[in-house]
Amino acid sequence: MTATETARAGTAEGRQPLMTLDGVSQVFDTKAGPIRAVDHVDLSINPGEVLCLVGESGSGKTTAARMAAGLARPSDGKVAFDGTDIWSMKRNAFGTFRRSVQYVHQDPYASLNPTRTILQTLVAPLLKHGVVKGKKAAAERAVELLTKVDLTPAENFLLKYPHQLSGGQRQRVAVARALTLDPKIIIADESTSMLDVSIRISVLAMLGRLRDELGVGFLFITHDLAIAKYFGWHGKTAVMYLGRIVEFGPTPKIINAPTHPYTRALIDAIPEPDPDLTKTKGAGSLRSLEIPSLAHLPPGCAFHPRCPLFEDGLCDGAVPQLVEVRSGQSAACHVVARDGADAGRPDQPVA
Ligand SMILES: Nc1ncnc2c1ncn2[C@@H]1O[C@H](COP(=O)(O)OP(=O)(O)OP(=O)(O)O)[C@@H](O)[C@H]1O
């Protein structure tokens, strides 16, 4: 099975993906020259499915997410929603797409208008897009939405301004606003990374409840595999490194039996003593902690200067393609493709 087929495994399950990214790239012109922030990425999200996109800072997660949300046009490749290329859509269809895919930013303070009360923030899209008729119905819907995101009693929040709320409460308002237009997919970009741990967990729990109750699909962007484990356990996870997907599969497989040395290194780096995570250790130490610049990518596998499995002449030759290494799980690593999913492991894999 090719990487594209693996990434589209949802179709094999008999479901039509709601959104697909097909060979999508984004090139930016920078002072250091053109950089490929996202390089030929294939992904799909089925209705109600959670897809976690994980990687270190600068790996291209936000750039990929912005293209998925229709906020940026890919330099190459296709983003399709309900089977239609979003950039070939007529104005009305594009509007429907934009309403169906809502982006929740990591910093709600930056994305909420400071001069609008919470009521105004929620009522504006409801009225603008004709979701409800009249201000009274819109206010009632705003109360329902605040209740959905656990801001209760909702009446206590309606007339407040963003600066009068805590970070967690602002994040909940941002989610309520995303829900105003009944989205089919929510793109949550590190949406809890700025919160304290306990608040972070309660916001994640709220998002998880919405995921289950509303059947909304999620593209969940995080640098933290532990968060992907918590939020996306029943979904899939794609691991990005310097613009490319290096490993993809069902989240439990990625967490319990990672195959790419980069994924293993990410798991090794998780500080918490989570037994499920720590038992998968075994990548060996990285050869370098330095992340190469996108403007001067190393030849072959971009991870090779850091990789404990590096082989001279193999890893610095061609760019490795994402290939299936276990059922439903694919990795872009020459050594794993040659030696199998457990390549380089000192211990045996965790079942
Ligand atoms: N508009 C832009 N112009 C030039 N370079 C950009 C632009 N946007 C992003 N980049 C670069 O593209 C690369 C990927 O950035 P991106 O924000 O997508 O990564 P990320 O994985 O989301 O990182 P973070 O977790 O820090 O948000 C980075 O090197 C970044 O500096």
Automatic annotation (TrEMBL):
Similarity comment: Belongs to the ABC transporter superfamily.
PROSITE patterns, per the entry: ABC_TRANSPORTER_1 (PS00211), ABC_TRANSPORTER_2 (PS50893)
An MF annotation (GO) of this entry: ATP binding
Organism: Kribbella steppae
Pfam families: ABC_tran (PF00005), oligo_HPY (PF08352)
Coiled coil (residue ranges): none
Keyword ATP-binding: yes
Family matches, as InterPro entries: AAA+_ATPase, ABC_transp_ATP-bind, ABC_transporter-like_ATP-bd, ABC_transporter-like_CS, Oligopep_ABC_C, P-loop_NTPase
Biological process according to GO: peptide transport; transmembrane transport
Alphabetical keyword list: ATP-binding, Nucleotide-binding, Transport
Name of this chain's protein: Peptide/nickel transport system ATP-binding protein
Domain ABC transporter intervals: 19-267
Superkingdom, taxonomy of origin: Bacteria
